[in-house]
Write a structure and sequence with these properties.
IucC family-domain-containing protein; IucA/IucC-like_C; disordered N terminus; about 650 residues; Transferase(Phosphotransferase), domain 1; single chain; 6-stranded antiparallel sheet; acid-amino acid ligase activity; alpha+beta; 5-stranded antiparallel sheet
Length: about 650
């Protein structure tokens, strides 16, 4: 049965989920200055929900000047937002300001998991309203005001709870100088994220178990990306219809067939042979598949997501769509665009293009990806250094893409056929997408995650044992290809699957999929494997230096993957989780290796900038900003 929930709270939490992620990005990408101001508990309050302090998000004066916190005054007019904290963010303890006896610290990196679900905006009115949306609304507000009053905040202190991502973005973008057009575009994506997040809370799924199918686990995602403010955005563009929550079925979509002249297509691998069972199943809905194939001689018959059809017909005039009756129902995986049809394709999944934005990316498949995957799978994967008992790599066996000189057009008509370990897995294994482990149990107002619930991790000893084995095996899976061959997989939670023993729940190993975000250093690869990457010109998978490879592995495996699991298992603030990571890392990587120096000797590492990339309208070109190296994270002791 689904976990119990309260729809009265869902809109508030839907806004908070997106807004807290926007706050985290603004801070971590150094777009604003933010300070942590500790809260001194009033012993007479007697509340169970005492904040540990506030995050003060300060405004900007254009893109070149960020307001600093002054030791002499704190003006309410300089504050963009106030966020009560339940956990201390990552601080620059060398940069601190004493404000009326309160020692405030510059924040280097923020995480939504540390924030209480209240984001306040300063109000011009001398009165305030504190909607009693949550049980702690009044007590948290009182504590927030207490901190600001202690700091001698000038002006009438009036705060409104429920500052949402669109309001916050519009205020920031006005201060920063973002164009009106781009401001409105990003605001629409933030609004989409909040709407779809609320809808997800409103319609909880049955909780998965160790007996559940891998597809059940794939579709159990409640919030998704832990720090991206467009984490739940489902934004479509003409000629596609609007993607309003609940109106388009993205979990069990229909697959239709495109018929395109072979002269217009670029095929890699044995695409037509591997796709034949699916194509035949679709054709047989209206007649004999062989007869229908003869009608489409000299054409490629390619599966297409039903929602993508208007994009194809508008852009590719020689493409036709077979009748609506020719379809099969698929089941989407976590990424939405990858689908499974296990009763037809037992050993494969299908990656399809859909012209909608999920997070920052338009979920199409570029010619760079369709070209790279099959060649990498055939020539590089078999030669990589890794333990085949610990890591399984799902090869991309074949692909098809429309042949067009403009890759931004071609990417709307493409398809990849990928191995499916989960479809063909043993009955002894439970395959779980790693992202699901850190998801809440289908409701917003809880700290209980699926990992705690399904594996019964109700003590620190159990959580420590679970995490220790997880980190050790994950590093054994993903360090060797990087260390030995100069290849980093995009090992975040969506691309990584875990193999558990169905009977005992013990972790057995990992599966990695999707090669679109791989980074590889050709000289190292050639030296150790005797091959180089076969890529199209300007492919973003080629790394010029090994630091680029390390940067990709850090962002996906350590920052996005490990950090989230460590936090939800309550092993971040006590330092135990990162101690485990360091212990296993140094046991595998020699101290004189450049990989050791990157991960263990740098206080700051490049952090991927989600919002800066949006402001600069970038997707394939990344922007990085220095962030604290979480491998070196230790418990923080604040001096008052």
């Amino acid at each position: 049965m689904p976990a119990p929930y309260s729809t009265a709270k869902n809109t508030h939490f839907g806004k908070f989920a997106t807004t807290s992620r926007l706050v985290a990005c603004l801070i971590s990408e150094s777009l604003v200055n933010a300070y942590f101001c500790p809260y001194k508990k009033n012993e007479q309050e007697g509340t169970d929900d005492v904040i540990v302090g506030l995050t003060l998000l300060l405004r900007t004066r254009g893109s070149t000047e960020k307001i600093e916190l002054s030791s002499s005054t704190l003006s309410i007019n300089d504050i963009l937002a106030v966020i009560p904290q339940r956990g201390v963010p990552e601080l620059d303890t060398k940069t601190k300001v004493m404000v009326n006896g309160v020692q405030c610290y510059k924040i280097d990196l923020a995480d939504p998991w540390d924030m209480l679900p209240h984001i306040y905006s300063p109000q011009l009115s001398s009165s305030h309203t504190t909607p009693a949306t949550l049980p702690d609304s009044e007590s948290v507000y009182r504590q927030v005001i207490q901190v600001l009053t202690t700091m001698g905040c000038q002006g009438k202190i009036s705060l409104a709870d429920g500052f949402d991502a669109v309001q916050l973005w519009q205020q920031f973008s006005h201060d920063y100088g973002v164009t009106d057009k781009l401001t409105d575009l990003i605001a629409s994506e933030l609004a989409s994220s909040m709407d779809h997040q609320t809808y997800t809370y409103d319609y909880p799924k049955p909780l998965p178990t160790l007996e559940s199918s891998y597809i059940h686990w794939e579709q159990s995602i409640v919030e998704g990306h832990a720090t991206h403010p467009m984490h739940k955005a489902r934004r479509s563009y003409s000629p596609l219809p609007p993607l309003n929550p609940g109106q388009v079925n993205l979990e069990t979509p229909k697959l239709r067939l495109l018929s395109i002249p072979k002269s217009s297509m670029q095929l890699r691998g044995k695409f037509e042979t591997l796709a034949a069972p699916l194509v035949d199943a679709i054709l047989e809905k209206t007649g004999n598949s062989q007869e229908l194939r003869q009608q489409h001689a000299d054409h490629v018959l390619m599966p297409v997501h039903e929602f993508q059809i208007p994009n194809v017909l508008e852009r590719f005039k020689d493409a036709s769509v077979l009748p609506e009756e020719n379809n099969v129902t698929a089941q989407s995986l976590t990424s939405i665009r990858s689908v499974a049809i296990p009763e037809i394709l037992k050993d494969l999944t299908v990656k399809l293009c859909i012209g909608i934005k999920v997070s920052s990316a338009l979920r199409t498949i570029t010619p760079y990806t369709t070209y790279f995957g099959p060649g990498f799978s055939e020539h590089v994967v078999p030669r990589l250094s890794y333990d085949r008992k610990v890591l399984t790599i799902e090869r991309e066996l074949a692909s098809a893409v429309y042949s067009h000189p403009d890759t931004d057009i071609a990417k709307h008509c493409s398809c990849v056929l990928r191995e499916s370990v989960a479809n063909a897995s043993s009955d002894d294994d439970t395959i779980v997408v790693a992202a699901a482990l850190v998801e809440k149990i289908q409701k917003p107002d809880t700290d209980i995650t699926l990992s705690k619930h399904v594996w019964n991790l109700d003590t620190e000893e159990k959580r420590e044992a679970f995490l220790n084995r997880y980190v050790e095996l994950a590093l054994k899976a993903f360090i060797p290809p990087c260390l030995e061959n100069g290849v980093a997989f995009e090992a975040h939670g969506q691309n990584t699957m875990c193999r558990f023993d169905k009977r005992t729940g013990e972790l057995k190993g990992f599966v990695i999929r999707d090669f679109g975000g791989v980074k590889a250093h050709n000289p190292t690869l050639k030296k150790t494997c005797g091959v180089e990457l076969d890529v199209l010109p300007d492919s973003c998978v080629v790394a010029e230096t090994m630091d680029e490879v390390y940067k990709l592995l850090y962002h996906t495996l350590f920052h996005s993957h490990f950090q989230r699991l460590i936090r939800v298992l309550d092993m971040h603030h006590n330092g135990r989780g990162w101690e485990m990571v360091r212990k296993h890392f140094v046991a595998m990587v020699p101290k004189d290796h450049s990989m050791y120096k990157f991960f263990m000797e740098k206080e700051k590492v490049p952090g991927k900038c989600m919002i800066r990339m949006k402001i600069e309208e970038l997707y394939r070109d990344y922007i990085y900003s220095p962030v604290p190296n979480m491998l070196l994270s230790r418990p923080q002791e604040l001096v008052q």
